């Protein structure tokens, strides 16, 4: 039954302190297979810091986190990716001078069997593997309707498509959990609608569990099954979208404030 399922992600009293500031404190989050979970809260609440903790960028000063029951504290960012946590960043991080296709291909490259000799001397094995990687990358691009842009430089893509490319690239790693940090930030309504369709497609096609940080409440409320609200580094509330939307504390701390938005860089 539900209680016996192992969470894909579990944080236990997770926290980090920067000097005197408890940026994240006592955070307990559980994500089960196939779930799409929202993480919301005011600017500076600690949302991105949670992503940085569970991707090995920061080391927790308290608590722990587990991926499919495996304790992850102390792993490097590289080991975290190997273990199956993929993410996108609040500020887009693409290889701007590489093509759209190459951006996805480099993410596949960690799986390539080709050794240095084979790649330097471009042996038949190299070309075969290269062609297979290109084909897999193309298939991913198609899912996001980016295949028509494959040969363009990433920096020349419209903003919304750059964000989708980041997600496509994250999918090239063999992942168990996907973390999206404000994917809709700076998008126009048409781009946000495209993003929403892409996230739905990911869920239906891959059943990937997703933790979504977002300030766009209509997006979060319409696609997430459960939502955690963070305020001053602590979980203020968690529950179904309608519970969160009507929660007095959440309205007071966040939802009732007009000026929150994802446009600024944090
Ligand atoms: N490396 C660091 N050193 C010191 N303080 C930090 C560090 N990283 C984050 N913080 C602080 O932790 C707090 C949480 O920041 P964080 O970026 O996680 O907020 P956020 O919820 O993602 O906000 P936003 O919605 O604006 O992106 C902020 O007060 C921030 O200044
Ligand atoms: Mg942030």
Describe this structure in words.
The structure is a single chain. The protein is α/β, with parallel strands linked by helices and 266 residues long. 38% of the residues lie in helices and 22% in strands. The strands form two sheets. A six-stranded mixed beta sheet has the order 6-7-8-3-9-10, sandwiched between helices. Strands 2-1-4-5 form a four-stranded antiparallel beta sheet, covered by helices on one side. Helix 3 crosses helix 5, helix 3 (100-108) packs parallel to helix 6 (159-171) and helix 5 packs across helix 6. It is globular, with a radius of gyration of 19 Å. The model is unreliable at 261-266 (pLDDT under 50). Adenosine-5'-triphosphate binds next to strand 2 and helix 1.
Query: Rg from C-alpha positions?
Result: 19 Å
How many H/I helical runs?
A: 10
Low-confidence stretches: 261-266
The end-to-end distance, rounded to whole angstroms, is 40 Å
Name every ligand kind in the structure: adenosine-5'-triphosphate, magnesium ion
Order of helices and strands: EEEHEEHEHHHHEHEHEEHH
Largest β-sheet summary: 6 strands, mixed
């Amino acid at each position: 039954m539900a209680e016996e399922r192992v969470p894909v992600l579990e944080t236990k009293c997770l926290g980090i302190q920067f000097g005197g500031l408890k940026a994240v404190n006592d955070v307990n989050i559980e994500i089960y297979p196939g779930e799409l979970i929202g993480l919301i809260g005011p600017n500076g609440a600690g949302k991105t810091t949670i992503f940085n903790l569970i991707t090995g960028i920061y080391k927790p000063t308290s608590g722990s986190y587990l991926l499919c029951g495996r304790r992850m504290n102390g792993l490097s960012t590289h080991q975290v990716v190997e273990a199956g946590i993929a993410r996108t960043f609040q500020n887009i991080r693409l290889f701007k001078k590489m093509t759209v296709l190459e951006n996805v291909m480099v993410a596949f490259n960690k799986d390539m069997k080709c050794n240095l000799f084979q790649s330097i001397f471009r042996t038949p094995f190299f070309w075969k593997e290269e062609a297979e990687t290109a084909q897999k990358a193309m298939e991913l691009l198609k899912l996001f309707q980016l295949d028509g842009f494959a040969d363009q430089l990433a920096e020349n893509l419209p903003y919304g498509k750059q964000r989708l490319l980041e997600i496509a690239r994250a999918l090239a790693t063999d992942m168990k959990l996907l973390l999206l940090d404000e994917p809709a930030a700076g998008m126009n309504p048409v781009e946000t609608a495209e993003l929403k369709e892409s996230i739905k497609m990911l869920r239906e096609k891959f059943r990937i569990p997703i933790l979504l940080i977002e300030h766009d409440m209509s997006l979060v409320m319409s696609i997430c099954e459960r939502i955690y609200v963070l305020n001053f580094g602590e979980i203020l509330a968690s529950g179904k979208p309608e519970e969160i939307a009507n929660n007095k504390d959440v309205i007071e701390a966040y939802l009732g404030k007009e000026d929150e938005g994802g446009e600024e860089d944090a």
